[in-house]
Amino acid sequence: MPVATLLTWLVVGIVLALPASLLVILQNLEAATQDMHSPARFSVLLSADATIDKAALVSQRIGARMDVADVVFVDKEQALAGFAADTGLEGLLASLAENPLPHTVLVNPRDDLGSEELAVLARALDSFDGVDEVVFDTLWQARLMGALQSGRRLVFGIGLLMVMGAVLILANTIRLAIEARRDEIVVIKLIGGGDAYARRPFLYTGLWSGLGGGLLGAAMAGLFFLYLSAPVDQLLQLYHSDRSFSGLGVIGVLTMMLFGGGIGLLSAWQAAAVQLKDLEPR
Amino acid sequence: MIEFDRVSKRFADHDALRDVSVTIDTGEMVFLTGHSGAGKSTFLRLLMLLERASMGTLRVDGRDTARVKGRDIGRYRGEFGIVFQDHQLLYDRSVMDNVALPLEIAGFHPRDIKRRTRAALDKVGLLGRERVNPAALSGGEQQRVGIARAVVARPRFLVADEPTGNLDPQLSAEIMGLFEAFNRVGVTVIVASHDLALISRLRHRIVTLKAGRLVAGGGF
Ligand SMILES: Nc1ncnc2c1ncn2[C@@H]1O[C@H](COP(=O)(O)OP(=O)(O)O)[C@@H](O)[C@H]1O
Ligand SMILES: [Mg+2]
After folding, report:
1. What is the pTM (predicted TM-score) of this model?
2. Is residue B149 part of a domain?
3. Where are the domains of chain A?
């Protein structure tokens, strides 16, 4: 019995530790990306009728701002020629009566600006004479968010499979426990015990197995994080992050135990419902 | 009052009981006899609602037991104390815990459980053996534990299926004496036994079955 219990705890623990570890790693990644200084960049599109001299002047004045690190001026003729060369559409583009591209100033803000100050800068750039539109380049962030989003889905997918596995293991444990105590259940029913009375000890077994599995899973995840935290912290330092790897914490351990206990209880209920129905006497 | 009213029980193509009508009064003690396979156990199993009649009506205190279903079955069985030939004790716990089981099922307070369990063990002469595992007891002692468990919750009916089947004549007489003692304090007792020598010495009604049919002692 103690060996069997320990084995159940171990298996349930392993099955819960995997998704829990992935989730914690994902949370760390999300936290790390959130406070990484975004290398934000604005594309300032000038009005179509701005002359090259005027455009160069605007570019210069933007570059002189305190909150701007540097600017790159993109001449529209240059841009079109580059585009034509890149695409091989020189002939077609040469036939255009007018260049459809505007002069553009690529603005790199100082990298210590917060989102508040970036918004202020964006408004300021928009109000410059001759500026048509300010585009905030968020493509890389969107990509990262997309990656994290799919990571999250993957974790939930794996988690769901693992939890289903845990439920099957727990339900089987209860099924075996009921099988082993068949005589007792028959006697209990013979002398007037109902299903509820016969089921109770197995619900405790389920709860106990789940709680233990959750605790053991948390311990395994904790060991894994211990192994992981030193190299991850080094990596974070490399990116000047003042963050360090955060593991499960007390809340995480309690959550895993509660979750384990919950699925233990549910599995036991399910297994007992099926088993007791088949057990004579009714 | 227990009334079997033209009750039949059919298993596949075999009639275990056929058209049996028996009335047992409250407070009565009745023996149920007949050869092996006569239908004694089936009679008791129908009474305990472990089986259901194929035909006929079984009434207890005027109530048709066909209407007792689901959760009520436990409560219904709680009115019966039941003793088995093979004791049906649980060998993973003490004598005390075996006897306490019906009280635990009924949800008694632990203090009352202890008091009533000791009282029941006292009645069957096993006080002082509470902590022992029943496996360490003799067959006769184990049967007395079974009887203590059957009477501990003060049932209105005491039902026993071949309770002396594995015991020598002297122990058998002792066990029957216990049943008579419980009957004297008002418990309705029904004992199935094929030991005619034993039961004919005791002055109680004898209901005789033969191949599923009632041949004597139906009453009224
Ligand atoms: N569950 C069952 N399925 C099929 N036949 C049964 C079942 N229970 C009893 N019988 C049959 O019913 C008849 C009566 O059995 P039983 O009531 O056990 O007799 P007794 O207890 O008098 O020896 C026997 O022929 C037995 O084989
Ligand atoms: Mg029998």
Report:
1. 0.66
2. yes
3. 2-36+142-278, 42-137
